[in-house]
From TrEMBL:
Residue ranges constituting the FAD dependent oxidoreductase domain according to the UniProt record: 4-392
Organism whose genome encodes this protein: Acidihalobacter prosperus
Sorted UniProt keywords: Oxidoreductase
GO molecular function, one term: oxidoreductase activity
Record's protein name: D-amino acid dehydrogenase small subunit
SUPFAM superfamilies to which the protein is assigned, alphabetical: FAD/NAD(P)-binding domain
A GO cellular component annotation in the UniProt record: cytoplasm
Signal peptide (from-to): none
TM spans (from-to): none
Stored InterPro entries: FAD-dep_OxRdtase, FAD/NAD-bd_sf
Length: 414
């Protein structure tokens, strides 16, 4: 059995650490902060059993025009950063063409199909049932035409992948969600998806489980990773931590570290914001307001509104536009009180142009492993790709793992 450093204690890092540990490896989980305080902290909390097709760039001209002219609230951008990401965005655009996207979705759907099953034993063992709702979530539509389209799409996903859903008209939705004060055109209820009312607390619960099973959590800086002989070493509190293997699970920061080792990772960061609001009547289920590009979910801290994507570099300043538009739209349908925090939170979805996470051995460095690039569904997929990585680590290859392999996906490694 090997000693392994897992770098990054978000949902992907802890999923990896638990899976390696379950196979008998001695795992040290390294983060520069408390576990689960970055991207895995601020998401919408959905464990998305319905998300069998990863989020593609729309290719229809009217939709692209709405994006370009700032009419859409789901995607906004900073022109300078669009140029900076141009090669990766171009690859992403090409991968979004229907035939390729369908092929990618065949892989993605296999990951998503396992997601709730892979979370389930961890939730039970971590005593985290109180953080989980197994009630699905609603995608709500304000206009009949959009709802009709969504109805057809839900049927396509049912026939193609077996994704379960039910349809509600506006009146039925108001009965199920007394917090709504206005009838909408309708909703698709994705019944097999789960959600958490505190994503960071879920990561923390998994970390406590990892520690109770003998795992070690340490504070260290992955940016100082180096190899000396056959040993990987990171500097940390009280000295260096060493092991024969290291897994990079640094989410949006993974490309920064890997550039130092000669890997060019074409990641696009899609920033998302959240803010909590006081609300008198909690929602029974999270609600995605499709027309306004926001998810509303009752969390422990208040009603969390999360936004869609802003294409902007990590250091770019806060732009509250998507949250403000989402807030105005939410006020039309719900009673929304004052913000809970003085400032919105933001984080960056780590998105690969081919929409798949990168999982497997580093092509050029023995003992170095990758598990990052989970884009819109890292909370959902952390335990699943953690298990896949652990299988590969123990020499168990599979067609699914091959499709996520860094050797095939990062050809520019120098
Ligand atoms: C607004 C928003 C909504 C979202 N909604 C959902 C959702 O509903 N469902 C879903 O499945 N996904 C959702 N996502 C995506 C999901 O949050 C991410 O895919 C996921 O959190 C990525 O997890 P990670 O572990 O890879 O990264 P992170 O959670 O960011 O973890 C990386 C860790 O690396 C650490 N780190 C970085 N640099 C260093 C260093 N030098 N040394 C040591 N440690 C370091 C960080 O401190 C951090 O803890 C959403 C994302 C956003 C932004």
């Amino acid at each position: 059995m090997a000693e392994v450093l897992v770098l990054g204690a978000g949902m992907v890092g802890i999923g990896t650490a638990l899976a390696l540990q379950a196979r008998g490896h001695a795992v040290t989980l390294v983060d520069r902060r408390e576990p689960g305080r970055e991207t895995s902290y601020g998401n919408a909390g959905l464990i998305q059993r319905e998300a069998v097709e990863p989020y593609a760039i729309p290719r229809e001209l009217p939709t692209l025009w709405r994006y370009l002219t700032g009419q859409s609230n789901d995607v906004t951008y900073h022109l300078r950063d669009v140029f900076r990401f141009a090669p990766a965005l171009w690859s992403y655009f090409r991968a979004s063409a229907t035939p390729r996207h369908r092929a990618i979705a065949r892989t993605y759907a296999q990951l998503i199909a396992r997601s709730t099953d892979d979370h389930a034993p961890l939730i039970a063992a971590a005593d985290a049932e109180g953080l989980i709702r197994r009630a699905g979530f609603y995608q709500v539509y304000r206009e009949a035409r959009a709802f009709d389209g969504a109805t057809r799409e839900a049927e396509r996903l049912r026939q193609t992948y077996g994704v379960a859903s039910r349809l509600l008209d506006g009146a039925a939705l108001m009965v199920e969600e007394p917090a709504l004060r206005k009838s909408l055109a309708g909703a698709v209820h994705w019944t097999d998806s789960w959600s958490t009312n505190d994503p960071a607390a879920l990561v923390e619960a998994y970390v406590r489980l990892f520690q109770a099973r003998g795992g070690r959590l340490v504070t260290g800086d992955a940016a100082g990773l180096e190899r000396q002989g056959n040993v990987w070493r990171v500097p940390g509190d009280g000295g260096a931590f060493e092991a024969a293997a290291a897994v990079v699970a640094l989410g949006p920061w993974s490309p920064d570290l890997l550039a130092r080792f000669g890997y060019r990772v074409p990641m696009v960061w899609k920033r998302g914001y959240h803010r909590h609001f006081e609300h008198p009547t909690p929602l029974n289920r999270p609600l995605m307001d499709v027309a306004n590009g926001v998810v509303l979910s009752s969390m422990q801290q208040g009603l969390r509104m999360t936004t869609g994507a802003e294409i902007v570099a990590r250091g770019g300043s806060i732009n509250p536009r998507q949250l403000e538009r989402g807030r105005a739209a939410a006020r039309e349908i719900l009673e929304l009180g004052e913000p809970v925090e003085a400032q919105p939170w933001f984080g960056h979805r780590p998105c690969m142009p081919d929409m798949l996470p990168v999982v497997g051995a580093a092509p050029l460095h023995p003992g170095l492993w990758f598990n990052f690039g989970h884009g819109h569904q890292g909370l959902t997929l952390g335990p699943t790709t953690g298990e896949l990585l652990a299988e590969l680590f123990d020499g168990e290859d599979s067609a699914l793992a091959q499709a996520l392999s860094p050797a095939r996906r990062l050809p520019a490694a120098a």
